[in-house]
């Protein structure tokens, strides 16, 4: 048992020193039932912008989640009121699911498809989904 303990400790320290944090995958079924625990924490894009979720849902100041739906590809659509602007849709895309080019005006999804990600409808026209996609960075 000592061996397994020390290996667990070393793998933990490797994870901590690595810039890539591996968090549990999102559970879309639970999220549809208003259990956001698998999404809880901070999501960040390459520009340093963040979105925050807690177990009950979107917890980012100034944003109010309004309505949640799921499409035929398993992508969650979270309708959000921003207060200042018109509503945006946060597309919550599970790992290994391509973000449909239907949403991207026929552009290709150049975000990291191997990871869970959130793409805001406000960023779609930027043509820079790779840098605008939010990834789960901490719990």
Task: Spell out the key features of this protein.
single chain; 139 residues; alpha+beta; eight-stranded antiparallel β-sheet; disordered N terminus
Description:
The protein is an alpha+beta fold and 139 residues long. Helix content is 18%, strand content 28%. An eight-stranded antiparallel β-sheet has the order 3-2-1-8-7-6-5-4. The radius of gyration is 16 Å and the shape is globular. The two termini are 28 Å apart.
List the helices and strands and how they pair.
Blueprint: H1 2-17, H2 28-32, E1 41-44, E2 50-54, E3 57-58, E4 64-70, E5 76-81, E6 88-93, E7 117-120, H3 129-132, E8 134-138
Antiparallel strand pairs: 1-2, 1-8, 2-3, 4-5, 5-6, 6-7, 7-8
Structural class: alpha+beta
The radius of gyration over CA amounts to 16 Å
Q: Please state the overall shape, judged from the principal axes of the Cα atoms.
A: globular
Compute the number of strand runs: 8
Topology order in helix (H) and strand (E) letters: HHEEEEEEEHE
Uncertain spans, ≥5 residues at pLDDT below 50?
Answer: 1-18
Average pLDDT level? 84
- Quaternary status of these chains? single chain
Report the span from N to C terminus: 28 Å
The main β sheet shows up as: 8 strands, antiparallel
Count up the helices: 3
Strand arrangement within the widest β-sheet reads 3-2-1-8-7-6-5-4
SS strand fraction: 25-35%
Helix fraction? Answer: 10-25%
In short:
The chain has 139 residues and is of the alpha+beta class.
